[in-house]
Write a structure and sequence with these properties.
Structural class: mainly beta
CATH class: Mainly Beta
Oligomer: single chain
Helix content: under 10%
Largest sheet: 3 strands, antiparallel
Radius of gyration: 11 Å
CATH topology: Rubrerythrin, domain 2
Number of strands: 3
Strand content: 15-25%
Distance between the termini: 21 Å
Strand order of the largest sheet: 2-1-3
Shape: globular
Bound molecules: zinc ion
Length: 59
């Protein structure tokens, strides 16, 4: 544990949620994968929006 709270990111286009705590195993992202660890060329699995167009959100 790094002590850093997990964050949640949302696609601006379709509303897809990426929760660092949950990851997205279907996309090959293990639970606990930080946003910063996801490749820069990763795109939204729902609509193809670039990673750069996601916003961090507060739940
Ligand atoms: Zn999307």
């Amino acid at each position: 544990m790094s002590g850093e709270p997990f964050k949640v990111w949302q696609c601006r286009t379709c509303g897809y949620i990426y929760d660092e705590a949950a990851g997205d195993p279907v996309e090959g992202l293990a639970p606990g994968t930080r946003w910063s660890e996801i490749p820069a060329d990763w795109i939204c699995p729902m609509c193809g929006t670039p990673k750069a167009d996601f916003d961090m959100i507060e739940l």
